[in-house]
Design a protein that fits this description.
With 186 residues, the chain is of the alpha+beta class. The strands form two sheets. A seven-stranded mixed beta sheet has the order 1-2-9-8-7-4-5, with helices on both faces. A two-stranded antiparallel ribbon has the order 3-6. A hairpin with a 5-residue loop joins strand 8 and strand 9.
């Protein structure tokens, strides 16, 4: 994700995040670990003040009972479970959105199909950009969406379990175009 125009800094140290997250930054939220209340509040404030956030794979889980705002005010939905790691199809639902530029209208991926649902008390509208279609039972679930958070830009992608997904050209296109949209680039 690092390019000459985009610098990516990885950290699993919350204090580094506290010291360095600025409104112009895009936070890539890809964890299912416990987070300090200070970190939760920082992320809430970052999005509320116009910052952008890309929630990837484990960052979509309903893991934080003490942080309901993540799903009710930032992501708009989340996952409690998933199918086994195996192949399924992804179908683009909203090809006009900038995050989908360059992404095939359908593609196959080996990943975990997250069983996504909105919490009962969510007050965000979400635009579903892509759905994962199960080959085992016929269910389909949103796998890429954009919640209407008001000030900040948020992109939610449930895909990305391992290298098979990360190396897939369609996934890479989604990451590039999604980050460009989050950063306000055309």
């Amino acid at each position: 994700m690092t390019t000459p125009e985009r610098q990516v800094q990885y950290t699993d140290d919350e204090e580094t995040l506290w010291a360095g997250l600025e409104t112009g930054d895009t936070l890539i939220f890809c964890t299912n670990q416990a987070l300090a209340e200070k970190t939760q509040n920082l992320i809430n404030r970052h999005v509320a003040e116009g910052g952008s956030l890309l929630a990837l794979h484990p960052g979509v889980w309903f893991n934080w009972a003490e942080w309901p705002e993540l799903h009710t005010k930032i992501l708009g939905a989340g996952a409690f479970s998933h199918e086994a790691l195996r192949g399924f199809d992804v179908r683009i639902e909203s090809a006009r959105h900038q995050t989908i530029q360059g992404v095939p209208l359908t593609f196959e991926i080996v990943d975990e199909l997250y069983r996504v649902k909105a919490p009962a008390d969510a007050d965000l509208a979400i635009e579903v950009l892509a759905r994962g279609l199960s080959r085992h039972g016929g269910d389909s679930f949103p796998c890429v969406w954009v919640p209407d958070t008001g000030a900040g830009r948020v992109l939610v992608v449930t895909l990305g379990h391992d290298g098979r997904a990360h190396q897939l050209a369609a996934f890479q296109s989604l990451m590039r175009s999604g980050l460009n949209w989050l950063e306000g680039k055309q």
